[in-house]
Design brief:
The N and C termini lie far apart (about 70 Å). It is elongated, with a radius of gyration of 26 Å. The chain has helices spanning about 1-10, 20-25, 30-45, 50-60, 65-70, 75-90, 95-125, 130, 155-165, 180-190, 205-215, 225-240, 250-260, 295-300, 305, 320-335, 350-360, and strands at about 135, 140-145, 170-175, 195-200, 265-270, 285-290, 335-345, 360-370, 375-380. The protein has a seven-stranded mixed β-sheet with strand order 5-4-3-6-7-9-8, sandwiched between helices. A two-stranded antiparallel ribbon has the order 1-2. By secondary structure, it is an alpha/beta fold. It has two domains: about 1-125, no CATH class; about 135-380, Vaccinia Virus protein VP39 (Rossmann fold, 3-Layer(aba) Sandwich).
């Protein structure tokens, strides 16, 4: 990708005291040239949505909205940038013409170099969302990186189902395999449920989930210090589970108190499935988007997924059902009578996961389709023996 570097570096000679900014970006005279260059690079790299991805990267680097672009696409880069920078940097003293042009040239070099770097990343099949550092989900903007699955529209089916069916705001909800926290945070933000908790085996994923909880829920006047304090109390409490002889009613009251106070936000805990949960801990609703892709199928996925999203969040072992077997068995222990489960599934796993819930005593099990008509969620209601 030497084209952009040549364009940026060309024409840096000064003629007397005059700085010719146009020459420093002579191959990119107008903004449309820059965007078209990005489209070309990504198309040559085989990116399916090259035009769209080039636009998103362009918007992030140059800070030009789509409306602004269509107003200035044919404008001279240096001129429009100079005007913008002059307006932004006014401090009461107007910049000298030469200094202004110096600033413009430096700004252009830095931005064009940054744009090239992001294009290189995308051309190497790093997901666009990881480059941008964000993904929209349920109308909310979530931070994402290489440690979490990128939230997808498929999962919105699960969140919408819970929001539509769980009208009692006092229910307690557990999001197992929380990842980025997109399910848990969305339910808290949009559903206003009193208690929402998330658990994951990945400490790096939990850092992302906590960040999303803090950034998205802060508009609800969330007391993040209190949430973090209660999260620590949960961890301290659950650490005692290694010694069954130390379990007593006071610990149960601690967990209940933590859950009650956690209504200020989402609490998270590090756990390999239910290993950090005491058998007496129960929830009204348990949701999960566990790893469900069969191991052999992972190698057939797009490079963006196969090579850049966490394998541990994808791999459902040989048949893709490993974690559903655990969930079906363990959720029966951690649900209140009449409690509900909602599991995201692969498009061809509906019947198998429904059968697992049926075998373990769940009632009213259903398979729900997403907007494309594919099986996407299996849900059911827990009933105690004899009910």
């Amino acid at each position: 990708m030497s084209e952009m570097k040549s364009a940026v570096g060309a024409g840096m000679d000064r003629s007397g005291d005059d700085l010719c900014v146009e020459n420093s970006v002579r191959e990119f005279k107008i903004w449309a040239d820059v965007l078209n260059y990005g489209k070309k690079i990504l198309k040559n790299a085989g990116i399916v949505e090259a035009d769209l991805d080039a636009w998103y990267l362009f918007e992030q680097i140059f800070g030009i909205s789509r409306a602004q672009y269509f107003m200035c696409a044919r404008e001279n880069i240096a001129g429009s940038t100079a005007q913008k920078m002059t307006a932004q940097e006014q401090t009461g003293n107007s910049l000298e013409s030469k200094n202004a042009l110096d600033c413009v040239e430096l700004w252009l070099k830095e931005k064009l170099s940054a744009y090239e770097n992001t294009l290189e990343k995308r051309a190497s099949r790093i997901p666009l969302q990881q480059i941008l550092g964000q993904q929209e989900f349920m109308g909310l903007t979530f931070f994402v990186n290489e440690h979490v699955l990128i939230p997808r529209q498929d999962t919105e089916t699960l969140v919408e189902l819970v929001l539509n069916e769980q009208k009692d705001k006092n229910v307690s909800i557990l999001d197992m395999c929380t990842g980025s926290g997109c399910i848990a945070v969305s339910l808290k933000k949009l559903g206003g449920y009193a208690c929402v908790e998330g658990a994951d085996i990945s400490e790096e994923a939990l850092k992302v989930a906590k960040r999303n909880s803090e950034e998205i829920l802060e508009n609800n006047d969330v007391n993040n210090d209190a949430v973090n304090s209660r999260t620590e109390q949960i961890q301290n409490c659950t650490n005692l589970t290694n010694n069954q002889n130390k379990q007593d009613n006071s610990e149960e009251r601690m967990v209940s108190e933590v859950r009650r106070v956690s209504q200020t936000g989402v609490t998270f805990r590090h756990s390999d499935m239910f290993s950090s949960f005491r058998e007496t801990e129960q929830f009204n609703v348990i949701v999960s988007n566990p790893p469900y892709i069969p191991s052999a199928v992972i190698e057939e996925l797009e490079p963006e997924v196969r090579d850049h999203e966490p394998r541990g969040a994808l791999d459902g072992t040989a048949d893709g059902l490993c974690f559903y077997r655990i969930l079906a068995e363990e959720c029966a222990k951690h649900l209140t009578p009449g409690g509900h489960v909602y599991f995201e599934i692969g498009y061809d796993q509906g019947a198998a996961v429904k059968e697992l819930l049926d075998i373990h005593g769940f009632k009213d099990t259903r398979v729900i389709q997403d907007l494309t008509g594919k099986d996407r969620v299996v849900c059911g209601t827990w009933q105690t023996a004899g009910v």
